[in-house]
Amino acid sequence: DDDTFSNVFCENSKKLINVHLFALAAKYYSFSNLGVCTPLEDVLEALRGDNQGKTGIKTDEFMNNKKSHEVQVMSELVDSIANYCGIKQVIDIGSGKGYLSSFLSMQYNLKVYGIDSSNTNTNGAHERNRKLKKHWRAYQSRGRANLKSQRLEKANDRPVESEIKCKAIGEKPLNNDSSLQSQDQVTIQDLVPSCGFTEVATSETSKQTEVDLVTRTQSDESKLSEEVLAILNVLPADAVEVSSSSQCSCGELCEEERAQRKMASLKAKASKSSESNLYFPLTSCITAETELSDVITDLEDCMMVGLHTCGDLAANTLRIFTAKPEIKAVCSVGCCYHLLSEQFENQEDCPEEVWGFPMCQYLKDKGWCCGRNARMSACLALERVAVGQMLPTESLFYRAVLQVIIEEIYGVTKSDRHVGKTFSKSSSFIDYVRKSLKKLELDDSKLPDSCIMDYHEKYKHRMNELEAFNMLKVVLAPCIEVLILLDRLCYLKEQDNIAWSGLVKLFDPVKSPRCYAVIALKKQSCF
């Protein structure tokens, strides 16, 4: 009913008068209640058919829990999309230190270009990959141990397994052609009706012959080699020292060993040049007008991904996807909504400008505007607060009182400079104010300690009020995030070359609050 939430605010003063109804309204207009998201399980099932995902490298050995969770979940989805589209090249926009890029390369043998605007991040990605290379021997040893265990299990299961598979082969026709264009086609909607796909999709129809079954039992060692190479190929071939079982006195190498090492080096370099499962960190500032072929010289059919692309970069990722025929799919998780540019925020009429919000024509026609305060609220994490991870009330209080001091003492109402994470580095409120003033390049000598503490005492009794206000912002946060993400989804729905697009909840919101991905696949006629 439209009147259900009509009593949340006073009709005359527009002030909040019913907090309970306010909370119910916020919940009603959040993702959890609107039913606009496609379940991740449905998407994976539709993309894979009967195929199962891979298991391999554990990300928690190289990343913190949050990043490990994000990379594992997103990389599995990206690999499924890439396989479905029949592509091997991935472009990671805003790749940062290359966590997602390197894992996609190592675990899924994809050729990944990680593009970031920061040289520091790109250099960090190179260095991190160099360190990862040192672990390849450990993976090799672990792989052999796992292989031995799997052999024992297979030895027990193989008689029954072979009997079942051979019976299946005798009953069903063989089809060894598994390319994207030639596979038998079924509608993904038949596989997963709730998924919402409308275009035709491919289904795995090829079955193993008796010869294939025999070959599979003899290929354990080659599988291990492939797993090791997947790790090895992340870095330059000469980054790994080739070991030899022979020993020469006085550090000198015999002719035979020299020849063996030379051959091994040549093979490694040849493998590097021919294998596609590599990761290339690049530095470039990506905008909606960026020509990817200028950044990536061997651009081919690919998909574009972004894990927590900041501000306008998430919007521009979608624009590039729709404009470039080489990009067949996109999977984008945005963040930092407060940094989005808004077309109607300052009532500026600049039609030629590319804005972060709104993207879809529907909201453009209505002149919709969120404003910075609302976008800041969208960055808050309701799920974390709900499990007891409370807001940093004291640091918010420090920041609010600091703003009063700056306005009243220095007459400054706007600044391009930022205080940053000064609170965690400060021993007291006085220390916080002085460090902040220095960051803002304001003279703190005119401000005695007593004056600073007077401001603190003046507003200290309003800390509870500040906490309550911020809790209301937290409750409202999911609604604003819904608006921003639905704008992006509607933009994709407005495009003629998109086969399917949707919002998918990828991550545990307690571990990773910005957990929603915008995903889209182009029509097969665009392939």
Q: In words, what does this structure look like?
A:
By secondary structure, the chain is an alpha/beta fold. It has 20 helices and nine strands. The relative contact order is 0.12. It comes from Pygoscelis papua (Gentoo penguin). It holds the Pfam family Methyltransf_32.
Cα-atom radius of gyration: 28 Å
Mean pLDDT: 77
Output the helix-strand order.
HHHHEHEHHEHEHHHEHEHEHHHHHHHEE
Strand content: 5-15%
Report the uncertain regions. 160-252, 266-277
Mass-distribution shape: globular
Q: How do the strands line up in the largest sheet?
A: 5-2-1-6-7-9-8
Strand elements, count = 9
Q: End-to-end distance, in Å?
A: 45 Å
Helix content percent band? 40-55%
Structural class: alpha/beta
The major sheet is characterized as:
7 strands, mixed
- The number of helical elements comes to 20
Question: What is shown here, in short?
Answer:
This protein is an alpha/beta fold and 527 residues long.
What attributes characterize this protein structure?
20 helices, 527 residues, seven-stranded mixed β-sheet, alpha/beta, two-stranded antiparallel sheet
Topology:
Layout: H1 19-28, H2 31-34, H3 40-48, H4 65-85, E1 89-93, H5 99-108, E2 111-116, H6 119-133, H7 136-171, E3 185-187, H8 188-191, E4 200-202, H9 210-217, H10 220-232, H11 255-274, E5 279-283, H12 292-295, E6 302-310, H13 312-323, E7 327-335, H14 361-365, H15 372-378, H16 382-386, H17 393-410, H18 429-439, H19 449-459, H20 463-493, E8 498-505, E9 516-522
Parallel strand pairs: 1-2, 1-6, 2-5, 6-7
Antiparallel strand pairs: 3-4, 7-9, 8-9
Helix pairs in contact: 3-4, 4-5, 5-10, 7-10, 15-20, 17-19
Organism: Pygoscelis papua (Gentoo penguin)
Protein name: MET25 protein
Pfam families: Methyltransf_32 (PF13679)
